């Protein structure tokens, strides 16, 4: 972690765990899609509308909607695991 | 440029700084810092969100060097990072928030005085090395280890000076009451660090009120400010009384607990007032409150602090200043954490 001239690199790159992004499917046809509501106002309405479009326009087999405890808290591991078991693709609401 | 100047410029170029020059971290300086703790340099305190780089004792010491800490400050800094990495503190929120919140660090106990961590006149700065550099080291870790880079993952619309450093000791010597930490179950001689998720401080000036009933008016009004948001969100909140304001209450025979209760009782607004604007969201917002209010009664009193434990009452600042500070909270998803730390 030395940074030339005897100095030390203090940044995340010196020790952060690399987390690979999940592979993106080329098509949603026949896939189960999980939508994660962040609890912000009307997020559920937007996600439900997106869910309909994913089924009707992109051929998603099924859409499941889940909700976090609070918009400012990460989703729990249990919730992520449950979604991962059922769905092949997930979309998380952001902002609001 | 000499080597030191080049090193300082290099840290600016790499964006490993808060915008001020850092002390270039050499192996020698790091070793001197690590000598201040018996803890293993490889000990992992936790991963700093959102990037999740590990805050080992070595990484903490490295940032202490960069921030300009004396080695004697390291135990306080380790205690502070232990607090903010607890789950209930939810540091991720303070990193990503679009508000201007920051971890406020309060230190109680004899070690604070020993290292010059200041709780008296002007304690929020500038001018006090321990206050300035311990808070700064915490922020540098949020940036360098957590990746809290403004505009990228740190999305605070304004930022704020308290995001450089936000660290004081309680003014135990001039407080008329037992300390904040003893009110929270710690022993009187124990060294305790507390992190509270808070917005920036707002001054409450009152050099006219000589009775608790009157003095509580201005403080409670600021606590329940519509724009402060606490009354809608029921987040944690801090009130920092100057020794002079604390004395007004104490002279009337009020204990710390009694003032805590008085402020909670007085800080609030009528429902009809808070539903006129602010972040009123109707019944869905009110459903999150830790108390029941009749939503058909515009005259119903809505407290700014619904749970007594959410109000953090602190005595700090200089005697001779008839003022207090109110620091509003952010959301219920981030809560204060206190820990005893070893020196």
Give a structural overview.
The complex is a heterodimer of chains A (96) and B (343). The longest helix of chain A has 14 residues, at 43-56. Chain A is of the alpha/beta class and 96 residues long. Chain A contains two helices and three strands, in the order βαβαβ. Chain A starts with 31 loop residues before the first strand and ends with a strand. The mean pLDDT of chain A is 86. By secondary structure, chain B is an alpha+beta fold. Helix content of chain B is 34%, strand content 16%. Chain B has a four-stranded mixed β-sheet with strand order 4-3-5-12. In chain B, strands 6-11-7-10 form a four-stranded mixed β-sheet. In chain B, helix 4 (74-84) packs across helix 7 (129-144). Chain A binds chain B through residues 2-3, 5-12, 14-17, 19, 41, 70-74, and chain B through 3, 6-7, 10, 14, 16, 24-27, 30, 47, 51-54, 56, 59, 62-63, 66, 90, 92-93, 97, 140, 144-147, 281, 284, 330-334.
N- to C-terminal separation of chain B?
39 Å
The total of helices of chain A stands at 2
Helical segment count of chain B: 14
- H/E element order of chain B: HHEEHHHEHHEHEEHHEHHEHHEEEE
Globally, the shape of chain A reads elongated
For this entry, what is the oligomeric state of its chains? heterodimer
- What does the main sheet of chain A amount to? 3 strands, parallel
Strand content of chain A: 15-25%
Overall average pLDDT of chain B: 96
Total E-strand runs of chain B: 12
Averaged pLDDT of chain A = 86
Structural key phrases:
heterodimer, A: 96 residues, alpha/beta, 2 helices, 3 strands, 17% strand, B: 343 residues, 4-stranded mixed β-sheet, 12 strands, globular
